[in-house]
Amino acid sequence: MPSNERRKEIKRRRHRRKKVLQFAKKLPQATVSERAAMAEKLRNLTPGGETIVEAWELEKR
Q1: Residue of 41, 33, 20 lying closest to 59 (CA atoms)
Q2: pLDDT digits over 39-54, tens only?
Q3: HSE of 51 in the Cβ direction (CA atoms, 13 Å)?
Q4: Residue 21's closest CA among 9, 13, 10, 11?
């Protein structure tokens, strides 16, 4: 029995939240190149990725 669209969206949201929390844990000890990679992955992961990148100052120079 196929799952409905609501279930799929909830699953996607939970996965995004889990990934963002993983990035948040790694952030304090991340190097400059790791921060750049994180920024790119966050942009691809979620529609609000750019907001997160700005809030976390991942591309601060």
Answers
A1: 33
A2: 999 999 999 999 999 9
A3: 4
A4: 13
